[in-house]
Amino acid sequence: MKKQRMIFGLSLLYWGLWLAILILWMGRFVTSFLSIYLVSALHLGEGVVGAVVAMYGFGAIIGCLFGGALSDRFGRQSMIIIGEIGAAAALLVVSVLADPVALGAALFVYGAFASLPSPAIAAYIADVVPPKRQQRAYVLQSWAINFGYAIGPIVANQLIKISYSLMFYVEAAVMIAVTILLIVFFREVRHLTTSAPAARPEGAMSRNWRRVLTDTPFLGFSLLMFGYFLVYFQSTSGLPIAMTDLGLGLGDYSVLLTINGGMLCLLQIPAMKLFARMGNSRVLVMGLAVTAIGYAVQAVAHSWGGFALAVVLWTLGELGTFPIATTTVAAMAPATARGTYQGVYNVVWSVSIALAPLIGGGVIGGFGGRMLWIACTVVLVGVTVGLRVTKGSRDAAMAAAMGAEDDSQ
C-alpha cells in the first residue's frame, strides 16, 4: 500500500473530489434563480412556475434512486462523470425553451442527470475516509458547497443583468470543466490503494435494496429529514415569491442567499471541533431547534431586516444538519451498500425538491407567506422531537454497522 500524503487529516483521494465540488458549486446557481427567471423573463404565473420547477425535483428522484445503486454495481466514478455530462447538455436545452410543458420535460431530464452523482459522491467519501474522520470530511464537503453557494448568487446576479441565457451557459460550462478535472483525477487515483468496493454481480443490487428497505432506524431517520428538507427548500422556492409579494426585489433575495452561504463558510470549519465533542445526534437536535426559531421569526417578518434576522438564525441551525445527517447515513450503511443507502436518502432530498415548490406556491397563493412560515415552524418542532426520541435506535444501528465492518477486515 502506498503511503498517501495527508492534508488536514484527509488523503488526496478525498481532496481531489473536494476541489471539483468547490468549483462545481461556485457555478451552480440556476436552480436558485429558476423561479424568478420563469416569472420575470418568461412571465409565467405562480401556479405554473411551481409545477414547472417541481419537475426538476421529480427528475432528481430518478437520478438519486438509480445513482446510488448503480454506483455500488459499476463504481462511483462512472456515475459521477455521466451525471455531470448529462446535466450540462440538459441545461443548455432548458435555456432555449419557453413553453411550460417543454420546460418541465427538460428540467426533469436535467434533475435526473444533476442528481445522479450525489449518492455516488457521498459513498465515495465513506469509501476513502476512515469512520473517525468522516464527520470532518462531510463538514468540509458542506463547506465547499456553501462557499460556492455564497459566490454563485453574486455571479448570477451580474449575469442576469446582461442576459438570463448567460446564466445557463456559464453553469453548463462549469459542469464541463469539472468533468474534465474529474476524469484526470480519477485516472490518477487508480495508482493509489482505496477501500472502494469493486464492481459487484447483479444480484448484489437486489440484496442491497432489500436491506435498505427493511432498515427501520434508517427509514425513520430519512422520514424525519424529509420534513426538514421540505422546509429547507422553501428558501429557493417559497422565499423569493413571498419576498416579491411584499415588494422586495431580486437584489434583496440575492443578498440573503449570500448571507446564508457566507455564514456557513465562516462558521462551518470552526464548528467542527465542537460537533466532534457533542456527537451526531445531539448536534442534529440542536441544529433543528435553532432552525425552528429562525422560521418562527420569519413568520412575523415584513421587511428585509426581518428576513435577514430569520436567515441568520436558520443558517446557524443549518451548520449542524446537512453534513451531520450525511455522516449519520454513512455510519448506518454497510460498506457493500453505501451507494444504495445514500441513494435512498438522496431520494428523500429529491422528493422534497419536487414537492416544496408545489406546497410553498400553493400555501402562499391561498393563504399568504406568513401561513407558510408558521407551518414550517410546526414541522421543524415535530422533526426536532422525533430526532430526540429515536436517538437510541440510530446509535444502535451505527454501532452494528461499525461492528460488521470491523469483522470483515
Word description of this protein:
By secondary structure, this protein is mostly helical. The chain has a single domain (7-190, 201-408), classed as Up-down Bundle (Growth Hormone, Chain: A), CATH 1.20.1250.20. It has helices at residues 12-26, 30-40, 46-74, 76-95, 100-115, 117-128, 134-162, 164-189, 203-213, 216-232, 238-245, 250-268, 271-278, 280-299, 304-318, 322-332, 338-367, 369-389, 391-408, and strands spanning 6-7, 10-11. The model has no long low-confidence stretch (mean pLDDT 86).
Bulk shape: globular
How many helices in DSSP terms? 19
Separation, N- and C-terminal Cα atoms? 15 Å
For the biggest β-sheet, the strand order reads 1-2
CATH topology: Growth Hormone, Chain: A
Which radius of gyration do the C-alpha atoms yield? 20 Å
- Given helix and strand content, the structural type is mainly alpha
Q: Quote the beta fraction.
A: under 5%
Low-confidence stretches: none
Mean pLDDT: 86
Could you tell me the number of beta strands? 2
Give the helices and strands as they follow along the chain: EEHHHHHHHHHHHHHHHHHHH
The helix fraction, in percent, is over 70%
Short note summarizing the structure:
It holds the Pfam family MFS_1. This protein has helices at about 10-25, 30-40, 45-75, 75-95, 100-115, 115-130, 135-160, 165-190, 205-215, 215-230, 240-245, 250-270, 270-280, 280-300, 305-320, 320-330, 340-365, 370-390, 390-409, and strands at about 5, 10.
